[in-house]
Amino acid sequence: MPARTAHLFDDATRVTAGDSRWQGRTSPDYWAFVGPFGGVTAATILRALIEHPLVSGDPLALTVNYCAPIAEGGFDLDVRLVKANRSSQHWCVELSQGDNDVATLATAVFAARRPSWSHQPAQAPEATPFAQLRRFPNLAMSWANQYDFRFVEGLPDFQAGLQGEPSSAYTKLWIGDRTPRQIDPLSLMAMSDAFFGRAFHARRELMPFGTVSLTTYFHTDAADLFAEDITHVLAIADAKIFNKSYGDQHGELWSPAGRLLATTTQIAYFKA
Amino acid sequence: MPARTAHLFDDATRVTAGDSRWQGRTSPDYWAFVGPFGGVTAATILRALIEHPLVSGDPLALTVNYCAPIAEGGFDLDVRLVKANRSSQHWCVELSQGDNDVATLATAVFAARRPSWSHQPAQAPEATPFAQLRRFPNLAMSWANQYDFRFVEGLPDFQAGLQGEPSSAYTKLWIGDRTPRQIDPLSLMAMSDAFFGRAFHARRELMPFGTVSLTTYFHTDAADLFAEDITHVLAIADAKIFNKSYGDQHGELWSPAGRLLATTTQIAYFKA
What we know:
2 copies of one chain form a homodimer. Chain A is mainly β. Chain A contains 5 helices and 12 strands. Chain A has helices at 8-12, 38-50, 185-191, 198-203, 222-228, and strands at 21-25, 58-66, 74-84, 88-96, 102-111, 147-153, 171-177, 209-218, 232-238, 242-243, 246-254, 260-270. In chain A, a hairpin with a 5-residue loop joins strand 4 (88-96) and strand 5 (102-111).
């Protein structure tokens, strides 16, 4: 095991450079029901791209398809620059373990963010400040305890169970790393998968659940994000439909100053 | 050229089976500014998967990354089943022409949609019926004229130009094929890219514009969709942010009876 870095998140998403083949390792600190927290897997893939010698520009879009569970231990990242243009790059990453099939398949777009007309029609959500809210208590899953979740709306009660009408799937909460860490594209990527399952909220109970495909768009370049100099984001998430074992989620990650940093959507399996 | 099929859309999205390499061809009937309409490219990729002998289940998620312009003529589709589970499949498709780099990179998830608890928190939009609205007039781009667009809200005026505050990017419209064709997963895929650029609406003018990455989730299985037996959908789209040359779009495709059929999101380049 390599020496621990300054932050657990950076330790969990650490990658070792190869030519087209990189290596990573699951972290017990970010463990979910049956494998690593999907957000950290996504962030690890993004880290391999950001640290790649051929990378140019900032992350614009990342789609991660979770094909099969990842076992505890090391994994390989097959990183391929599919197409490079003057101002954008298209990447494909396959995560696998040993001789097994691909466990995670991702595509990413990087882009040089040139100055342009700018307009933010989305309304920044209002919220009680982070410091005035109480931290959500620890859960059995280790990954959740690496975060500081402070609910503004939609505080979950997973013990109540579904009685009559489903609850709202809408959530508004602050998300920061439990040990504060400056928000960067890696943490935005992980946090875009850090919402609890919408089906848990709607049914007020836990159930077998897994993200199948996750897409996140980044709306600032790395320099602007760095200039925000923040350690938590205001996040909202909601669902539109649950049908035949799959449900959607869409979410937004905002800076405390009211800047939309990222939008995200996912489709997830549930058993209910 | 092969003989025309019953509908231009089926002609435009026709594929010829190979082993892992399939063939398609651009259609002058679905041409956009500098290449084929991205929605038809996405639908062609989806068609190759749906017609693939190894396919199982119904389309659940498709992400299409537009890496480079596609020239008029034939193209190859490199179709690869990355991982198959008991109830889902993960695919990767690369579109290329001749010896050139990949022009379009796509990932797809297919799934067996098993019965489950069902809940649709999203509110079906209200709209004047399709038959009572006027068809949007023809445009210079051939693809747009293959559709019957009937605007309920956000009728575009691309001549006005940006004066003072940007216009709303919100649009509500009916979309059908100009020659009616029963809505299937292929047409949902194409229609999810058939909104005009959000930046066009916000700035009330046309500008250099191109979809970079498009993701669509399907919320019914093919049998339920077929049972709807419809030839148009009620579609809404909006944008949250335009910043440093890229803007987002998120949209919903509804059946006339108020069933959410698909949700879609994309990030697009614009020059303004």
